[in-house]
Amino acid sequence: MEDNHSSGAPLVIEGECFFEHMRPEGITPREMHDIFNDYESLSPSCAQAFLKATLSDLSFMSVMEFNRWTDLGLKVLRKSRKGEAVCLEFFRSGTVFLTKEHFCHMETWVKLALEIDSYSPETTLSFFHSTPVFLEQGKPFQLKQRAENAIRILTIGEDRSEAASAFLLSSSNMQGFMFSLLFKEWFSIGLLLSKASAASGAAFFQVDPLLLQDNYLPETKKILEIVGLISRISPEAGVEFYQKAPHALLKLNPNIREEAIKIALSISYKIEGVSATFDIIVKSLGRYANPTQETILGHAKAIERVSKRAAIEYFKTIEWLLKEFSELFLPFWVKEGLQILQENRDRGIRYFSLVSRRSIDEFSKWRATILFEDTKELLSILANAFCGEPVTLKTAEERSNEEVHGNGSRSEEEGRTFYLPAYISEGRTKKENFRLYKITTARQAGYLEFGTFDPPFQQIGELLKSFPLKEVAWDLFYIIEDGRIDHCLKKEYEGLAVEMAIGVKQLVEKRLFPLSEPVQAVMEILLRLTLDQMELEKIPDGLLHHYRFLKNAFQDFYEGAFSVWDSFLKTCEIYPYVARLQTESPYQVIKPLPLREKINPMKRPGNSPLSHPPDQIVDDRGEEACAENAPLPPEALETLLENLKNVTVQKRRDEEGSVSGISLSGLEDIITDGVLPPMEVQYKKNLAKRPLSKRAAPQEDGNRFRYDEWDYLQGEYRKKWCCLREKEIAPGDPSLYDQIFSRYAELINSVRRQFQQIRPALLETVRGVEQGDELYMPAVIQGVVDRKAGNTPSERIFIRKEKKVRRIATLLLIDMSASTGETVPVHPESGEPEKRIIDIEIESLVVMIEALNALDDDYAVYGFSGQGKEKVDFFRIKDFKEPASEIIKKRISGIEPRQSTRMGTAIRHAAGKLRAMESDHKLLILLSDGFPQDLDYGENRKSKEYALNDTMMAFIEAGKEGAKTFCITVDQAGNDYLRKMCHPGSYLVIQDIHTLPEVLPKVVESLII
């Protein structure tokens, strides 16, 4: 080897030929050998490291630069207190500077390293080692700040080398995701902990900061804020919270993470206890999927406003509660506890700890509750057996929705739809509650079988309206008619009679008796008489004469009553006796038995019974009846009642047509006290326990993009599940655009003027500058403090106002599904041609585009449709940077209905378009004609929940990325699903689709302002 050195021949070590690579022009092999010898005389290992470094392409160097590089290596080797180790790292990490672009920064890098070395050689090694990773995202000029930060840690106390080294290593990869202000906050917390103790500082900086990358920016800021607060009291507790909070937070839905951190801070006894409280909250919420998490947290916030201790106990108890009963009943349990908490703080805390008798009783009640969905199949069998033909079972809530969207006059298949409570909680066990469901179902069948809805039914309603005390008449009628139905059921079905006796007795025992008001007391006696549940010994002496009157009036009545008309005639007979008892106090409508309903003569069979008498009679068109339906004077009423006695009604069915009895005892073996919900419900509950997964970035391949899709059942994203394809829309005839422009010229000019008025130049206040209009007092005060402390005060003590133009980016996303091809009704007098939904969408776009042009802001228009997860089509109508032109008109004119509506994927792609815009405000406005649906949007095509949850999550993601989202729909049933899919206040249902061109600009204007 020595011969090679002296001769200047290439040096060969382990098969590798050195000095023959791209070395600087003017450097001979002899000179290379000499430098190698200099290194080898000090450290053979460093000489070898130098040789490996020369394998890089050094041809860009001049002779002076090459000599400078080798001198820097020798300088490090000679001056560092750990010369050999630091020099080896210099050559390993320094290759990042061996480029024409970066070489000029190498000398500064070494100078900074040696400055650090004077405090800690170990930290110098970390400074060198972390540099290549840092420069992948950072800039060379930022190395100085890194070195200064490391020295600040080293000089804050003794033995801070470990903390400083950890800072350099962990912060090297933070440039790609952490803003400078947030980085400063992160570093200041680490500095605070390092000052408290070397171990705390090292532990903080050793936590991999990439954990923070998975959290959204507001969540990260909140985490660091709380770490700082805790660390001032207890450094160990601060580090503990920081180590687990970022990862733990990912178990929660993005919509509630900030709130979860805030409430953890709020309800903790001491600031150092926040970490333990946060653990409890995450443990409580992390078991469930959204919206259960939001529900639980919402109740916790209401409890926290009254008692922080009670809120903590609630979080500890929630797992046990939701194991035993459905989350549908949680609001009721919490409401009871809040009432107790407001009355007595200690009793309320005991309630939410689930140790008080009241709490356990309420808990037992909801645990025994039966849900309609869990028993629907068995109840359907029972209902069909009663009726002898198919009937439909629905909940009372479904009936309310149908009435809202209908005119209240359809027949519901002539009463073949039974509306049952969504749940029953009156019994002490599931068995008792199921019994009540059976009785309620039998009663619904009884209305049909025994003629409640026969032709006289609506005429009875008209007549009841004429009574001076129509509420009293109404209550009398429904009590008497329900008694008739009960009597018929017991007579026809012997097995049911036993069930009814047991169930009714339990319900009556819970009713308050006697009542103070005479009319209410008489009504309660009548109700109990019709149920065979009036015990004579419980009647006060003052009410005995009322009991005797009613007992005589109903003696053998039900044996001869065969129609609803008989019940009405008995109402007419009893009414004068009861009405004269009414005092000046307003009549309080009697509370019906839970298994009974107030049947409504104002509606046709199958529609909803009202909870109180109607204020007006409504005809088939939904219009208020005319004035002759006003209450009759007493004389006219007396004549009417007398005449009614002469009315005759033919029997609805004869003896041969009577139904044979049926016993229900056989069903007891099917349903037990331990009723299990359907398999689908258990499946959902099990999957809801999985933590929320991280959403992957979209994968781009030309004009194809793969996106994750949110599976609410699994509680995680389906990775790269959907393929979206960007497409050009086929151009249409631009004359369509011009025709629309002419038709809406007046509206367009009006909207333009309005938009031009909402674009003022804003004045931005800039504080801490060297020149300005006024003093910035915090900086002035700080300057005085610095001067007294012997430091040089800053000259940045002024405030200046600078003009800043607000930039807005608006993206309109248009639903182009097949359903937009449906025509909409046209007013016969308008003279306009028939239009499709998409035609009105196009008209709205023309008005909107012309208005947005007046703002001189960035805007884009895209459409979407597709068929299946592998074919989500995203149509480019106008990109952000495209100017308004003839081609845009052609694209708008070419918009046509396509196929399905996979909203989640389209929203994610649109949000990506907005994310790339540098704007102060970003608006994403979705224009649709219905709910999201596609052929494989979830496992069950009949269920909308999967699609709604994915779309909801897509809106949440867009909001977290800085976009303000808004959904406009022309679907009149939109309120039903938009409240699940969108944030309150961020959607609008257009009642009259023809007004869309006027409404859309107003929506955009309100969002911009």
Write the topology of this structure.
Blueprint: H1 2-7, E1 11-13, E2 16-18, H2 29-42, H3 44-53, H4 63-79, H5 83-93, H6 106-117, H7 121-135, H8 143-154, H9 161-171, H10 180-196, H11 198-206, H12 217-233, H13 235-249, H14 257-267, H15 274-285, H16 292-304, H17 308-324, H18 330-343, H19 345-352, H20 357-367, E3 370-371, H21 372-387, E4 392-395, H22 396-405, H23 412-415, E5 417-420, E6 423-424, H24 430-449, H25 456-464, H26 470-492, H27 494-509, H28 518-530, H29 544-553, H30 557-560, H31 564-579, H32 634-644, H33 679-687, E7 699-701, E8 704-711, E9 716-728, H34 735-743, H35 745-756, E10 761-769, E11 774-775, H36 777-788, E12 798-805, E13 808-815, E14 823-824, E15 835-836, H37 837-855, E16 858-866, E17 872-878, H38 886-893, H39 903-915, E18 921-928, H40 945-960, E19 963-969, H41 974-981, E20 987-989, H42 996-1008
Parallel strand pairs: 4-5, 9-17, 13-16, 13-18, 18-19, 19-20
Antiparallel strand pairs: 1-2, 3-6, 7-8, 8-9, 10-12, 11-12, 14-15, 16-17
Helix pairs in contact: 2-3, 2-4, 3-5, 4-5, 4-6, 5-7, 6-7, 6-8, 7-9, 8-9, 9-11, 10-11, 10-12, 12-13, 12-14, 13-15, 14-15, 14-16, 15-17, 16-17, 16-18, 17-19, 18-19, 18-20, 21-24, 24-26, 24-27, 26-27, 26-28, 26-31, 28-29, 34-38, 35-37, 35-42, 37-42, 39-40, 40-41
H/I helix tally: 42
Structural class: alpha/beta
Radius of gyration over C-alpha positions, nearest whole angstrom: 40 Å
User: Could you describe the largest sheet, including whether it forms a barrel?
Assistant: 9 strands, mixed
Mean pLDDT: 79
Question: Major sheet: order of its strands?
Answer: 7-8-9-17-16-13-18-19-20
Number of strands: 20
Uncertain residue segments: 1-8, 403-414, 601-630, 647-694
User: Can you tell me the overall shape?
Assistant: elongated
Strand content: 5-15%
Estimate the helix proportion, in percent: 40-55%
In angstroms, what separates the terminal alpha carbons? 79 Å
